[in-house]
Amino acid sequence: MEVKIGVQHAPREVVLETHETLDDVQKRVTEAVKSNGTLAIDDVKGRRILVPGDKIAYVEIGGGVAGQVGFRS
């Protein structure tokens, strides 16, 4: 699942891939924004991304990468 997080006053969005479901990510975002806490999401590479809830501008939760571009042999 691909997640894009827009952060206030940041020129670029945070983009990550996670194994969590759409509903799980939505619950985490909602809780972080309501409580002004921290949004914590683990990505597929084992990293934990932390974003302050009061700095979240928007979140896009999608299906992931549609296709790979490259050459095959």
TrEMBL record:
Top-rank lineage group of the source organism: Bacteria
InterPro entries reported in the protein's UniProt record: DUF3107
A Pfam family reported for this protein in Swiss-Prot or TrEMBL: DUF3107
Protein name (record): DUF3107 domain-containing protein
Upper taxonomic lineage: Bacteria, Bacillati, Actinomycetota, Actinomycetes, Propionibacteriales
